[in-house]
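Bug report

Summary: structure tokens for Photolyase/cryptochrome alpha/beta domain-containing protein differ between web form and batch submission.
Environment: batch mode, default settings.
Steps: 1) Submit the sequence below via batch. 2) Compare with the web form result.

Sequence submitted:
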Amino acid sequence: MAQLVWFRSDLRVHDNPALFTACQQAQQEGTDVIACFLRPLEQWQSHNWGQNRIRYTERCLLDLKEELEALHIPLICQDVATFAGQIPALLQLCQRLNCHQIFANEEPELNERQRDQQLIAQAEPAGIHCQLFHDQSLLPLGSVLKNDGTPYRVYTPFRKQAQQMIAQQPVQTFPAPAPVISDPQQSLQLKIDSLSLDQPDLVIFQPQNYSDDPIQQRWPATEKEAFHQLELFCGQPINRYKTQRDFPADAKGTSLLSPMLAAGKLSVKSCWQAAEQIRLSDPAAAESASTWQGELLWRDFYRHLLVLYPELSRNQPFKKETSNIQWRNAPDDLQRWQEGKTGFPLVDAAMRQLKETGWMHNRLRMLTAVFLSKYLLIDWHEGERWFMQHLVDADLASNNGGWQWAASTGTDAVPYFRLLSPYRQAERFDAQGEFIARFVPELAKLPAKQRIQPKGYVQGYPNPVADLKEGKERMMAAFKAVKSESSAS
């Protein structure tokens, strides 16, 4: 007999409710714990995961395998094509390894939730009990509602309600479980190791570390490194978070934890607790710690929306009328944006940062998204896909939420005519052109003012892809047309 823990986007042993509960039950019953990860490559690709995200997940798996081995828990890594293939693979593993319970943590995306419901429907008649645990957010998904039971559509009231709920019931985390010790563990490990030989239909894979990939080497993929990064951020940088988080040249202005959160190498609850400790113990850093907690709640907000509005997982805009916007078909402009050759230095620096590092500063994610969807009037889906294909921290909830916010198709109290000028943003947040010089070397030798807005021809650097005034007028006309159609109907 054994308990089966199915890892998905929760690749850690600390604050993992599914793993912790399985280990507790195993110790009470004198049984073993087996862990599995079922890699659905085709499904990931259909969801626009790129190599950066896939490789980072594999590196996180490599560390997870070592962490679990220290707990005497073997990890089976099996290849399947799609989510649909995960269900029979799980049921077969249960049968072969004599497992009668599956423990897993909930995921907010629609396909993932539908898969879990299908698993429960097929497992229960076979005598296999499935337990799903709240894990991906600070509060249970879909639980932050108005007094009338309806969802919040705007962030600020959502945040206030969530803060009240957390104040009433503070965030709790689970410790790493104690090692699982049982006499048959060694023979069980040998049995698992021989599964791929005894059962040729099982495709077992070994996670890789990708030590030759320069992007991967930028991002820690072990639990120890994740907690170290959290500790570093909560040491001194968090004191400056409120004032420095919008300046992309400041390497310590943000936490740099998003890849670890996306892969579940670190839990959002652990982050909240670390910030809460700073907020309560250090008056000088309290406001900054609270500001970071607000960003963690933004992340939660987008996850709650995925559960409450399933159409968001189907590529549909939150504001339904915006599906009628007449986006431009401008492949050359799109390519220049993708390559960081728009002729707008801060936009180009941001896009090149993405390709070079697999990550982009949050303010620049907003700027580049507004530039594509507003000034160029190119469908925000194009940008959303591009980000998913290149980000190490690729995550549907945050990426979709951010793009729809920028394109004014999502949950946003600000009118559609909100714009972020690439020149004004550079003047405010990269006044010396330091960040621009780092990623757009063609401009590095120019004075700071000209790095921000070059005057005339600069060798090797393109002219602007669009006139900002004309782009704004074009966008205004497109949104007004949709607004008029919506009013008329």
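Above is the batch result. After comparison, the two runs are identical; trailing whitespace caused the diff. DSSP finds 22 helices and five strands in the chain. The chain has a mean pLDDT of 94.
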